[in-house]
Amino acid sequence: RPPEMRTEDGIVIIPVIEEVAVIEKRLVLKEELHIHRHKEATPAEIPVTLRKQRAVVENLKADGTFTSTAEEN
């Protein structure tokens, strides 16, 4: 409702109004997605390459001679 014309202390006040379009955005629920998760285990045989390591340990004795041992993993 527009404001009315009024008089204050001998002054006439006339409101001037204008129409303005107001655009408003709202979130509206359109649909819902329900997702159910299921875990499933399937045994499988997968070929793999086995790796080998070889370590050579050399010990220096007090008399200056070496002894060595080899280990494989």
* Overall average residue pLDDT: 87
Q: SS-based structural class?
A: mainly beta
Number of strands: 4
Shape: elongated
Helix content: under 10%
Order of helices and strands: EEEE
Low-confidence stretches: none
Main β-sheet: number of strands, strand sense, barrel status? Answer: 2 strands, antiparallel
Tell me the strand order in the biggest sheet.
Answer: 1-2
Helix count, per DSSP?
Answer: 0
Q: Strand-residue fraction? A: 25-35%
What's the gyration radius in Å?
45 Å
Distance between the termini: 91 Å
Task: Kindly describe this structure.
By secondary structure, the protein is mainly beta. The protein contains no helices and 4 strands. A two-stranded antiparallel sheet has the order 1-2. The N and C termini lie far apart (91 Å).
Describe the secondary structure blueprint for this structure:
Elements lengths: L5 E3 L2 E3 L40 E7 L5 E7 L1
Antiparallel strand pairs: 1-2, 3-4
Task: Give a quick summary of the entry.
With about 70 residues, the chain is mainly beta. It has strands at about 5-10, 10-15, 55-60, 65-70.
Task: Note the main attributes of this structure.
single chain, elongated, two-stranded antiparallel sheet, 73 residues, 27% strand, two-stranded antiparallel ribbon
